[in-house]
């Protein structure tokens, strides 16, 4: 009986606390520039778009957590004819549904030269990518991908956001794969198009690296 009463009181306390918090939501729209570590190329030359929606909860005046559902384009592009006369122009287009969970820390307690930084926020989190479709081109001709693309990819998310209006923020993020975007087994392989690399896990693969610049509009 005592345990039931205690559980009831704890549940009521949790619900009351949750309801007292401020929920928010809105839309995301922006662009990306990306590369693929392991494709034997270099540089953020692939341009894409990103768009979707978000919902979040203010945990305190300093912290919030945000979940997102968005469409994002990633991949790689190269026109290095000097070093790759047979394989360039080269394109990998990877389109994902992206599901991030991001924690934000607002600098409203920080002052520099009597200027409060409440308009500045740092964010960090993880995201899960679900592959919608993929396309690879060599010399403008669509070819079968040399390796099967993984349907699911896990990423790290780091970023900074600046408030430019009451309900509008502009955010810059770096989104980097923790797991390979293609299934290549456990060893390196080089067929002229790719040169697999090793990242966090003890396996070789290819990894999306993305810079995202987007507008976050709270509704």
Summarize the structure.
The protein is mainly β. The chain contains one helix and eleven strands, in the order H-E-E-E-E-E-E-E-E-E-E-E.
What integer is the average pLDDT? 82
Helix-strand makeup class:
mainly beta
Number of strands: 11
Q: Report the principal-axis shape.
A: elongated
SSE order in H/E notation?
HEEEEEEEEEEE
As a percent range, the share of helical residues equals under 10%
Poorly predicted sequence stretches spanning 5 or more consecutive residues: 10-20
Biggest sheet, spatial arrangement of strands: 1-2-3-4-5-7-8-11
Please give the radius of gyration in angstroms.
21 Å
What separation lies between the terminal Cα atoms?
A: 45 Å
* Number of helical regions: 1
Strand content range: over 45%
Q: Main beta sheet: strand number and arrangement?
A: 8 strands, antiparallel, barrel
Structure, described:
Residues 10-20 have low confidence and may be disordered. The chain has one helix at residues 2-20; strands at residues 22-37, 46-58, 63-78, 90-112, 115-138, 141-143, 152-165, 168-177, 197-198, 204-205, 207-218. Helices cover 9% and strands 62% of the residues. The protein is built from 1 helix and 11 strands; from the N terminus they run αβββββββββββ. It has 219 residues and is mainly β. The strands form 2 sheets. An 8-stranded antiparallel beta barrel has the order 1-2-3-4-5-7-8-11.
């Amino acid at each position: 009986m005592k345990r039931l009463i205690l559980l009831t009181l704890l549940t009521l306390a949790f619900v009351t606390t949750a309801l007292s918090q401020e929920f928010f939501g809105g839309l995301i729209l922006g662009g990306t520039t990306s590369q693929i570590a392991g494709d034997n190329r270099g540089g953020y030359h692939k341009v894409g778009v990103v768009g979707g929606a978000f919902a979040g909860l203010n945990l305190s005046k300093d912290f919030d957590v945000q979940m997102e559902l968005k469409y994002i384009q990633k991949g790689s592009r190269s026109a290095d004819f000097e070093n790759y006369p047979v394989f360039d122009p080269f394109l990998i287009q990877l389109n994902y549904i992206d599901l991030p969970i991001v924690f934000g820390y607002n600098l409203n307690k920080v002052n520099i030269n009597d200027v409060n930084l409440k308009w500045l926020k740092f964010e960090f989190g993880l995201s899960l990518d679900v592959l919608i479709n993929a396309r690879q081109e060599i010399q403008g001709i669509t070819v079968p991908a040399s390796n099967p693309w993984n349907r699911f990819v896990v990423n790290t998310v780091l970023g900074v956001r600046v408030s430019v209006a009451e309900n509008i923020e502009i955010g810059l993020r770096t989104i980097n794969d923790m797991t390979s975007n293609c299934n290549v087994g456990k060893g390196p392989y080089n067929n002229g198009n790719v040169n697999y690399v090793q990242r966090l896990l003890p396996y070789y693969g290819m990894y999306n690296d993305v810079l995202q610049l987007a507008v976050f509009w709270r509704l």
